[in-house]
Amino acid sequence: DDDVQWCASGLYCQRDVPWNIWGSDAASRLAHIGSRKAAEALAKAILTVGREDAYSSISLALASCGERGSEALIAEMKRRRGTPLPHKCVGMAFETLGGIAVDPLIELLRDDALAEIAAESLGLIRDKRAAAPLLAVVDDCSRPAEARDAAAIAVGRIGDSRATPFLGGILTDTSPEKYTTRLAAVEALGGLKDPS
């Protein structure tokens, strides 16, 4: 426990210290420890450290923790439900975790507060097991629009052509706040395979 606390403190190095000098070493040491506490420290850090240069090191360290890393990150996201989460770094972490995170992320699709980030992460993993649950989110008009859009884009990234009509619908929304979503929809459409 003392080693975990000491290493975890290194994840929050001062802004003027390059991450690769101190923080990266702390993340690697926590990955080597690999305990539940170490995974929890990494999961908390990826959501709170706020440093672009830290995300890949923490993601790799979480992936080294395997299922513990996935479980710890999902538990930390649930604890922070209702607060803004850094989508980019969470997605990177789950993409690095890969297939072991698919089933827990599919479960997370049920939570309206976390469905958008779960769908985005599933799209980055690109595991075909997620296509049907993601399409269920897209089809459910009672779900938040952001979650439905993210789910449609994720299905497109997975390569399932059933997402085509939904992705086309996203492209017709010309509101300025949907610009990034439209770009992601174009990317997802470009990745779809022609079924013929």
pLDDT below 50 for ≥5 consecutive residues: which ranges? none
How confident is the prediction overall: mean pLDDT? 88
Alpha-carbon Rg, integer? 18 Å
Order of helical and strand elements: HHHHHHHHHHHH
* Count of discrete alpha- or pi-helical segments spanning 4 or more residues: 12
* Annotation, overall tally of beta strands: 0
For the biggest sheet, the summary is:
none
Ends apart, CA distance between termini: 57 Å
Describe the structure.
- The structure is a single chain.
- The protein is mainly alpha-helical.
- Helices cover 66% and strands 0% of the residues.
- It has twelve helices and no strands.
- The chain has helices spanning 2-10, 23-33, 36-48, 55-64, 67-79, 87-97, 102-108, 115-125, 131-139, 145-158, 164-172, 179-191.
- Helix 9 (131-139) runs antiparallel to helix 10.
- The longest helix has 14 residues, at 145-158.
Keywords:
0% strand, elongated, 196 residues, mainly alpha
Task: Note the topology.
Layout: H1 2-10, H2 23-33, H3 36-48, H4 55-64, H5 67-79, H6 87-97, H7 102-108, H8 115-125, H9 131-139, H10 145-158, H11 164-172, H12 179-191
Brief sketch in words of this structure:
This protein has 196 residues and is an all-alpha fold.
